[in-house]
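for ur thesis appendix - UPF0154 protein LVIS_1358. copy paste whatever u need, i formatted it the way the template wanted (i think)
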Amino acid sequence: MATWIWILIVIVVGLACAAGGFYGARKYMENYLKDNPPINEDQLRAMMLQMGQKPSQRKLHQMMAAMQQNARKK
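the 3d part is after this line
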């Protein structure tokens, strides 16, 4: 076979693998987030109670806002 055919085959296979990997990773992350949702206010309240703090609604909102802001930065 000619060299250009091998190069074309390698490029096509590489693109197919990249597309398959992307969609596979996307599906995996969707399932992971469905099974393990991000932290919510109830979980944060329980965590604060375990640490011995009395969680006020203001403090909960403040911590949730800080966590969301940190998540956006990354």
